[in-house]
Fold:
Amino acid sequence: MKSSKIKTDCPVCGPGPTAPVGECHQLPVVKCCSCELMFVGECNEVAETEDFFRSDHVDNEDDTQKFYVNFRKDSLQREAAVISRLKPDGGRILDVGTASGYFLKQFAEAKNWDAVGVEPSAVSTKFAKEKFGLNVHEGYLSEQKFVDESFDVVTSLDAFNCHRTPNEDLSEIFRVLKPGGVFAIEIPGQSYRMLTGSGMLCRLFFGCSLRLNAGVNFYFYTTRALVAMAERAGFELSDSYAESTPINGNIVSRIAKQAYFSATAMLYRMTAGQVHYAPKEFLIFRKPEVATLKMPTAATLTDKSMKKAA
Ligand SMILES: [Zn+2]
Structure:
């Protein structure tokens, strides 16, 4: 079947002018002229992308072990510790894009957590179920029809860039979270990404203008863009942390990566995230308590009653 390409719009601003940035995997990468968010300007049909993640993106268990357990362990342990601190009494957690399940396993093993995963890849779902005994739904979040306000925590770890319908998915996450619930998301650091994946060095070493894994990633979020989208869905940003890409390779490479991460994480902390060159970022959003949003205070009630009466 010959795939046709469809034009995509900025998920923050909607349809509008864009400027070309370059090409990656034969796909055009553009920048929104209004908010400067970079994204893949033309993509396959959404259903075609979804099929790709169901069957082709991860096609063997060895890669799942290597890329989604071994390489990711440190980050996933740090992130699980943050969630446990935020919700010491536990609850029901949903991980969207479960991958190997290593993150979720840390909650499934704890007595006070009920852990649920959603993962499109058939291979990864099987891996997470068999290796860690997890409750993982194969497919996409939108297909699950979870009950309203049925989770205390929803997580999306290094997966949101792969979502083709990010605004719809944020609304769905908001819907299934309980008021006061936590939405925690890990995204690549955009400055780091451009530092390592574009420009002269990229051309010299890799023979391409951009290394953004387009076709697997579709939107290259800045913190500002993601926060704007999450706030529009109803979330409030409550905290953020610098995160790292895997510290792997030979000893020299590991020392260099660790030093870079330590330095950029310190800078991130000192500037409250304003100076962000860290490889990744872990953002914590809250769904506001309905009571504090919707319940009128005594003062507003009086005010309204008076207006009605007038
Ligand atoms: Zn925009």
User: Anything to note?
Assistant: Residues 10, 12-13, 32, 34-35, 37 surround zinc ion (CB under 6 Å). The domain at 58-309 is CATH 3.40.50.150 (Rossmann fold). Residues 292-310 have pLDDT under 50 and may be disordered. The two ends are 68 Å apart (CA to CA).
